[in-house]
């Protein structure tokens, strides 16, 4: 049986809608009264796992799920051993460097050497500033990273930005974009080669659904 790892949060609704278009119905996950984390689809062809977005590639990498939907930001940060197959064209956002609007910083290179940058995307932030040859201290934060510059703990943050409203409401501005992110379809490589659960056919249908804009 095919197992699909689905992300809690922003990407869930569109992920379920896309899968419904190819005959896999996990809409029970959208029921506010449902507390199940594993359910069969309506047809009984597959089962879905509802997990934190950061855990989707882990379940796929270790083969507990053959297929998964996850943001590119998670893939960039974790670098899992999975195959990236399809840009699903939803969940648009960007990874950005942001600072207090009242500061003098208007480019990452304006930041002081050995200054502090707060981020939950520690690896991406470190890689970015290493590429700029700018030594900074990366401060791991997993809650409201916007508080870093506000409280003076850090000069800047690296974080995922969608509309930018949270930044504006907290007096922050973007000064650089590391990359754009969208939802991606990932697959367990061995399961793909073995065509577990008719995986190749499901992926082909999903590709076609994305192309026609389902």
Name a few traits of the molecule.
214 residues, alpha/beta, D-Maltodextrin-Binding Protein, domain 2, 2 domains, six-stranded mixed β-sheet, five-stranded mixed β-sheet, 8 helices
What does it look like?
This protein has 214 residues and is an alpha/beta fold. It has two domains: 2-91 and 182-211, Periplasmic binding protein-like II (D-Maltodextrin-Binding Protein, domain 2), CATH 3.40.190; 93-180, D-Maltodextrin-Binding Protein, domain 2. It contains eight helices and eleven strands. The chain has a six-stranded mixed sheet. The protein has a five-stranded mixed sheet with strand order 8-7-9-6-10.
Assigned CATH superfamily of the largest domain: Periplasmic binding protein-like II
Principal-axis shape equals elongated
Number of helices, counting only DSSP H or I runs of 4 residues or more = 8
- Strand content of the residues, in percent? 25-35%
Radius of gyration: 19 Å
**Biggest sheet, spatial arrangement of strands:** 2-3-1-4-11-5
The largest sheet is:
6 strands, mixed
Oligomer: single chain
In terms of per-residue confidence, which ranges show pLDDT below 50 for 5 or more consecutive residues? none
For the secondary structure, the number of strands is: 11
Q: Specify the CATH architecture of the largest domain.
A: 3-Layer(aba) Sandwich
Mean pLDDT over the full residue set:
95
What name does CATH use for the topology of the largest domain? D-Maltodextrin-Binding Protein, domain 2
Structural class per helix/strand content? Answer: alpha/beta
Tally of distinct domains: 2
What share of residues is helical?
25-40%
Highest CATH level, the class of the largest domain: Alpha Beta
Cα distance spanning the termini: 25 Å
Compressed to H and E, one letter per element, the order equals EHEEHEHEEEHEHEHEEHH
